[in-house]
Amino acid sequence: MKSTLKREEKESCSCSRSTKPSHSEASVNLSLSLTFHSTSPNRERRQDWPPVKARLRDTLKGRRLVHRGDESSLFVKVYMEGAPIGRKLDLCAFSGYESLLENLSHMFDTSIICGNRDRKHHVLTYQDKDGDWMMVGDIPWE
Amino acid sequence: MNYFPEEVIEHIFDSIACHKDRNSISLVSKSWHKIERCSRRSVFIGNCYAINPERLIGRFPSLKSLTLKGKPHFADFNLVPHEWGGFVHPWIDALAKARVGLEELRLKRMVVSDESLELLSRSFPNFKSLVLVSCEGFTTDGLASIAANCRHLRELDLQENEIDDHRGQWLNCFPDTCTTLTSLNFACLKGETNLAALERLVARSPNLKSLKVNRAVPLDALTRLMTCAPQLVDLGVGSYENEPDPEAFAKLMAAIEKCTLLRSLSGFSEVAPRCLPAFYPICQNLISLNLSYAAEIQGNHLIKYIQFCKRLQRLWILDSIGDEGLEIVASSCKELQELRVFPSELHGEEDNNAAVTEVGLVAISAGCPKLHSILYFCKQMTNAALITVAKNCPNFIRFRLCILEPNKPDHVTSQSLDEGFGAIVQACKGLRRLSVSGLLTDQVFIYIGMYAEQLEMLSIAFAGDTDKGMLCVLNGCKKLRKLEIRDSPFGNAALLADVDKYETMRSLWMSSCEVTLGGCKRLARNAPWLNVEIINENENSRVERNEEDEREKVDRLYLYRTVVGTRKDAPPCVRIL
């Protein structure tokens, strides 16, 4: 995915095709990347319209949640190594890691674990805001 | 002419604070002019390039309080290069050299350096109050100088500034003997805050009425601060917190309960929604609530809180409150005077069902009889709604409507919004400030010129058809002081029709319009008392003077009256004709 986002936005949002840690052939990685909104890549991000001041602009850029009425959603893109097409899902729709894994396994038709790497399974990883690749499952779901 | 000795007249003048009145007084006679100018304590300069420091000091030697404004308003929206100008240093330098007894300095959209702040802090022994709004160019080192050297500092109010945060110890620089603070606002600082130093400072400031902290102050620290400052009237909160544990929440609520004088609340830039209920104990006392940075709090939580703020006079909120939320505000907040609704989605990425429409605006106009100022960002509007609003609220003095999509027509009739805005200007006889948006033809400007007799400031974007529009405004609005126009088809004919008009105005801004270099040159020739500035972002694109095409459209034009001629500090991207 070619990112058309500006530099500031890149800090909290990662490009999902960045370099991945190297593994032996048999083990592959799933990766998650946080993105903001699903905009068409051609949409221009004007800095002078609408007429809002910088502090509000920055506040809105730094938002973690997208609000839709009463619900929140946090959309992420998931890629499986070796497959060029990704899938998109709403993290807020899951209650915990188990249901997330179950869904992803189903979506990608493979078995996935988070935590210890096993040569025969996919491993779920994500890229945090510092750009580091991390294992999913270390921090509490909330 | 004078029946009283000078001292008596001066004494009478002392009770007149309003700038306009004092300006009028000074025109009565030579002796009144002299008495007035020698006794003048407070001066307001709306455009720092209209006059220079030497003439200011020459006329008002007893000056104690100075307000200066620099960049034009559209600088707030990235339309003016950072290096454009508005430097405060020459002012502070001149005031220091003349040993003016400065006590108060308020700056808006000016460039302030650490050196300026250092000089300020050392030059005026009685300095009490520094208010910086939308300024830039300084760091926390400059704040450290102010803290360290201003022995009688009462007010340090930093609003929406771009401050380089060196994560230093500026709060530590307030000496232990500093106990006079009444107002401290550093909400716009982005870095870490020395919490211990802040707590000590607050604890030794018994007169502290206003405290606005930045997001680096977590809720447990806030609890401690409020516990030692229950006399606070104005509080700015802000720190990301996962749901606070019940004990922390209870402590916070207990501290807030004791703040019975609290009337104004703001901040909440990174606060989890479940922290808002901690502020329930004081909600019925609030007269001012600014939740416009509370991007993490959903509409339903906002509504739950606001509906109990029965005495609210001022509300700044994000459009995530929705039309339904505004309907609840309309039925709960009967004392509301000023409302600002800001967009929570800047580029319309998601289909934002929670954004506000004309429905919310009409509800507010119907429910809040004291409403006089509104800034409303919305995704759609209708003439019918605006006509209803005008009927409900003839008392508007400020009406600013921003429909997010440029040129958007009435979404029901597909017509322009001329009639709607026409109704507003016709009904609101006291209207002083207006911003228009949506699909608009020259007709709306005919209405504005005809009816907006008290209008002082007008903002136009993506509107109008021909020069006639701008001409109607310039001819009709006798009290117009500031006109700012962007992306509208007004050109040389309108610009040049009445050059003398600009002497009655503070400034004119035109960007992405149809005015040409030739037109601007002609204006500058005919009006030597104006500074006519052409702003180009890319100075490398300038061709040789004798090759330049006078028919070339000017990207950004800014002109203003001045008594001190061309300024000498313009950067390369600014050309003064």
Automatic annotation (TrEMBL), chain A:
Homodimers and heterodimers. Coiled coil: none annotated. Residues 1-26 are annotated as: Disordered. Residues 73-142 form the PB1 domain. Keywords: Auxin signaling pathway, Nucleus, Repressor, Transcription, Transcription regulation. GO terms for cellular component: nucleus. It is found in: Nucleus. Aux/IAA proteins are short-lived transcriptional factors that function as repressors of early auxin response genes at low auxin concentrations. Residues 1-12 have a biased composition (Basic and acidic residues). Belongs to the Aux/IAA family. This is Auxin-responsive protein. It holds the Pfam family AUX_IAA. The lineage of its organism: Eukaryota, Viridiplantae, Streptophyta, Embryophyta, Tracheophyta.
From TrEMBL, chain B:
Pathway: Protein modification; protein ubiquitination. Gene3D superfamilies: 1.20.1280.50, Ribonuclease Inhibitor. Residues 61-107 form the Transport inhibitor response domain. GO terms for biological process: auxin-activated signaling pathway; pollen maturation; SCF-dependent proteasomal ubiquitin-dependent protein catabolic process. One of its GO terms (molecular function) is auxin binding. It is found in: Nucleus. It comes from the Eukaryota. CDD domains: F-box_AtTIR1-like. Residues 4-41 form the COI1 F-box domain. PANTHER family: F-BOX/TPR REPEAT PROTEIN POF3, PROTEIN AUXIN SIGNALING F-BOX 3. This is F-box domain-containing protein.
